UniProtKB/TrEMBL annotation:
InterPro entries: Extradiol_dOase_DODA (IPR014436), Xdiol_dOase_suB (IPR004183). Gene3D superfamilies: LigB-like. This is Aromatic ring-opening dioxygenase, catalytic subunit, LigB family. Belongs to the DODA-type extradiol aromatic ring-opening dioxygenase family. GO terms for molecular function: ferrous iron binding; oxidoreductase activity, acting on single donors with incorporation of molecular oxygen, incorporation of two atoms of oxygen; zinc ion binding. Residues 30-264 form the Extradiol ring-cleavage dioxygenase class III enzyme subunit B domain. Keywords: Dioxygenase, Metal-binding, Oxidoreductase, Zinc. Its cofactor is Zn(2+).
Length: 265
């Protein structure tokens, strides 16, 4: 069985752990919670490509058997700095990921000290609240080269037949300085382009269009710094010939922006 691949918009901060934020993220929560049903069986492991882990010059793979927590947000209630998501790591999967990348000519190192950041543990908690699926994180490269990350996804595609769920975790819109200003219009324009590229364009044309994402309407207004878009490139590369479906779409998500998540395969 070949598992699908996902790119998910992970929302803002540790929202599932804050009652006041749960209502405004109810549709996002429902979409994430539905992923196990869509897959049909529990995966052997999750490979999470989070926008919140950047390395330069080589990809890094989380290698700890018991990853710690990384509270990479600020200004939230005190209890959110005590969250535990005790999913085990998988040094075996980390080694497999590093080897696949290396075999494709992509530099990769193993990091045994890295903990789960909120781009990983937030969606994972909603998907698998029992924390009973091993999870390994893969960094993105700080150069943000779309072609490089598409290539990384292609290299990792064999994992789909090995029971590994590949999830790119970011946001379809990420401009925090404008989120309460022009974010509504810019996010809608860029999201419409994403929908067209991912859902309507032939899969064989998808990579080329994604590589040229800066030519999309409102591209730099939606992603002045494309860290939250780059995980999409890995997901799309891992499912290059597969059709895509939109599994979450909200035109009035938190702060009034348009946000979407996608499944490939």
């Amino acid at each position: 069985m070949k598992l699908p691949v996902y790119f998910v918009s992970h929302g803002g901060g540790p929202w599932p752990y804050i009652p006041e934020m749960q209502a405004s993220n109810a549709r996002l929560a429902a979409s994430l919670a539905d992923i196990p049903r869509q897959i049909g069986s529990k995966p052997n492991a999750i490979l999470m490509v989070s926008a919140h882990w950047e390395t330069r010059g080589a990809f890094a793979v989380m290698g700890s058997p018991s990853p710690s927590m990384l509270y990479d947000y600020y200004g939230f209630p005190a209890h959110t700095y005590e969250i535990q998501y005790p999913a085990p790591g998988s040094p075996e999967l980390a080694g497999r990921v590093a080897q696949l990348l290396s075999d494709a000519g992509l530099a990769a190192d193993t990091d045994t000290t890295r903990g789960f950041d909120h781009g990983a543990f937030v969606p994972a908690f909603v998907m698998y609240p029992e924390a009973d699926v091993p999870m390994v994180q893969l960094s993105i490269d700080a150069g943000y080269d779309p072609a490089l990350h598409l290539s990384a996804g292609r290299a990792l595609a064999p994992l789909r037949k090995e029971g590994v769920l590949i999830v790119g975790s970011g946001l379809s819109y990420h401009n925090l300085r404008q989120i309460y200003g022009g974010g509504s219009a810019a996010s809608a324009q860029f999201d419409a382009w994403l929908q067209q590229v991912l859902l309507d364009a032939p899969p064989e044309q998808r990579a080329g269009l994604l590589e040229r994402w800066t030519s999309a309407p409102a591209a730099r207004l939606a992603h002045p710094r494309e860290d939250h878009l780059i995980p999409l490139m890995v997901a799309a590369g891992a499912a290059e010939s597969d059709a895509a479906a939109c599994v979450y779409h909200e035109s009035q998500a938190f702060a009034g922006i348009t946000a979407s998540s996608f499944r490939f395969g």
